[in-house]
Amino acid sequence: MKRIVLIVTIILTGWISFGQQDAQFTQYMDNNLYVNPAYAGSRGMMNMTSIHREQWVGMDGAPRSTSFSLHSPLTYESLGLGLTVVNDQVGPISQTMIYGDFSYTLKFKKRMGKLSFGLKAGVNVINSKTNELTTTQVNDPSLIGASRTIMNPNFGAGVYYHTPKWFLGVSTPKILEGTYPGSERKLEKRHYFIIAGGVFDIHKNWKLRPTSQVKFTEGAPVSVDLSLAGIYNEKLWLGLTHRFGDSFGGFVQFQISPQFKAGLAYDYTTTALTSYNVGSFEVLLSYDFVFKKEGIRSPRYF
Q: Which residue in 6, 37, 158, 164 has the fewest CB atoms around it within 10 Å?
């Protein structure tokens, strides 16, 4: 019974009071298209990336998130297109987001940097099955009821500047703030993201890649993620992560081939929830499709 009360509290807190509805990933630096449409096509080749996250393992109804992205530059390389699909489930509430992404890139003759502007548009399908909950109050009208599905169209925008050595992106993936039918309560909150990072040579076989992600949401604390990865011989990535006030973690990624990268991540909760779970786990798979004869000349760090 205590677990049920805890899960319901998490759902009501996350979806109503604080409004932090979007899934968060430890390996966010490899999942830029999820929050910023201006990233579409920036790798210079078609890329497919998927991340699956099991959060707070050991808790009934804990969050489970899966993201998939596919993006590529067009023949006219200033244009990029992408597709993003994310499924996020917390207890009896699930959300599936399906978005198309478009970017336009400006190139500078005297500089290595590129500036991209992006738009994304799609739909959020939210399904609640609160009738499946076991409650302490029999026939609680706020939790017991028929399952219902809500479809909310939405759109977002972003800006992304990158060079071979560093990048900076600012975005808001969902601009519209939908409400529950027949209620003033906001079903979706607008999120603002700032993601930045770079890569530095520290030895002939080692590089360092620091990155950070800051998220702003009305009615919620600012979320700050930091990560630092050491890259050995362009093949092995070893990293540490920290989400302020929430968790510490680490990840390991392998560049199995010039085109294929796989990664594992783990983070340990530092909040009161640590007594109820053994941490969170992620699996990442990323593949670059090469259609040109010259192949991949150098690895991509972001």
A: 164
